[in-house]
Amino acid sequence: MTSTTEPTEPLSVEQLSATTLLRFATAGSVDDGKSTLVGRLLHDSKSVLTDQLEAVERASASRGQDTPDLALLTDGLRAEREQGITIDVAYRYFATARRRFILADTPGHVQYTRNMVTGASTADLAVVLVDARNGVIEQTRRHAAVAALLRVPHVVLAVNKMDLVEYKESVFAAIAEEFTAYASELGVPEITAIPISALAGDNVVEASANMDWYGGPTVLEHLETVPVSHDLGHCHARLPVQYVIRPQTAEHPDYRGYAGQIAAGTFRVGESVSVLPSGRTTKVAGIDLLGKPVDVAWTPQSVTLLLEDDIDVSRGDLIVPSKDAPPTTQDVEATVCHVADQPLTVGHRVLLKHGTRTVKAIVKDIPSRLTLDDLSLHPHPGQLVANDIGRVKIRAAEPLPLDSYADSRRTGAFILIDPADGTTLTAGMVGESFAAPQPVKDEGDDDGWDF
């Protein structure tokens, strides 16, 4: 039987198009071995080009290392290599015969929590690393909380450096039990624990001969087989309009199409739809896909919808099925992660970008800031600084069609932008967070809101 580590032929375009795509992110504390795991995954799955590997070998030799430091495959910034840490989110693309992958290697430092939010916001799966010698620590809980907050459907606990604890099953079992109990309380739907040694390659791509007590999948096997359970094709259908196509040529004198990428769900010719926020209704007269008419289109296809009635539709509008339209509101309550160095304060005037629509807005209140260490809520902090996660209440200048983030990670998300220079200030998730078991009450404010 051919070993999975032997060189294989590159996948053809046809083979790649037939495979599914999995987006996943790695997280963990400093020195837990995230970049080494990613490097080992790329190396052992034959996803590293020869010149890349040679460059890593040269860099490792110049630092006096006998073997290639696989962490250098992802730590690309000079400061990262010098300090041996990950600072920015490193994206890597690779594929096997079974699946295509987009990988986000995120930083482990507390001050880079916002980078993890960026990397995990679109992930189908998060790999949380733990050093077997240290077990579940504060930063491990923080990363589990962020994964739960972002509604990542699958979490893998990779207990790394098992070679340094003599591959003891009891060490792995204790860590897996503690992490699983904590993550389950946060509402993480699926948790898989895998004992590994990223440095030695145990249970990363190949099963480990040193841990015969473990009968589960390797990291790569799990990544290749985990179901992408959040099938957007069965979610509420949503099409943010990006562009109105009206050529007004002799060949197409009356053509008026509304182009965009379907964010979720499926659209069909003849279906009754509404245009939000105006609320006007009509029917889908036609769907153009890659210049050809089709009867059905689904996420994430980019299409042009033709409507039966000549109604006012422009960029920023949202086309939805009439029977499944989200509510429109100017008052937004959300959980946010503040990503800018400039604090977000009550009264802050911002731009709110939701889908393809951008409107003026004002921060009316910051009811609480979340302490990820113990999931406690600090009431009315007055502001959020970089890496803070908290609850906000925002008043938009125009109505917005908002889904709950729990229902749709695509149409339930938004960002706040500084109108002065276009800087992204905050990433928001509409609706309740996992960490609100009871309303936050400010003892000094019993008279209600004061506008």
Give a verbal description of the structure:
The structure is a single chain. The protein has 451 residues and is α+β, with helices and mostly antiparallel strands. The chain has helices at 13-18, 34-44, 50-62, 78-83, 113-120, 138-149, 169-186, 219-225; strands spanning 20-28, 90-95, 99-105, 125-131, 154-160, 191-195, 239-240, 243-245, 257-261, 266-268, 272-276, 280-289, 292-294, 296-298, 302-307, 318-321, 328-338, 344-345, 349-354, 357-371, 376-379, 383-384, 389-401, 413-417, 424-430. Strands 7, 8, 9, 11, 12, 13, 15 and 16 form an eight-stranded antiparallel beta sheet that branches. Strands 2-3-1-4-5-6 form a six-stranded mixed beta sheet, with helices on both faces. A six-stranded antiparallel β-barrel has the order 17-23-20-19-24-25. A hairpin with a 3-residue loop joins strand 11 (272-276) and strand 12 (280-289). Helix 6 (138-149) crosses helix 7. The longest helix has 18 residues, at 169-186. The relative contact order is 0.10.
Residue-averaged pLDDT, rounded?
A: 83
Structural class: alpha+beta
- N-to-C terminal Cα separation, in Å? 72 Å
* Assembly classification: single chain
- Beta-strand content: 25-35%
Radius of gyration: 24 Å
What profile does the largest beta sheet have? 8 strands, antiparallel
List the helices and strands and how they pair.
Layout: H1 13-18, E1 20-28, H2 34-44, H3 50-62, H4 78-83, E2 90-95, E3 99-105, H5 113-120, E4 125-131, H6 138-149, E5 154-160, H7 169-186, E6 191-195, H8 219-225, E7 239-240, E8 243-245, E9 257-261, E10 266-268, E11 272-276, E12 280-289, E13 292-294, E14 296-298, E15 302-307, E16 318-321, E17 328-338, E18 344-345, E19 349-354, E20 357-371, E21 376-379, E22 383-384, E23 389-401, E24 413-417, E25 424-430
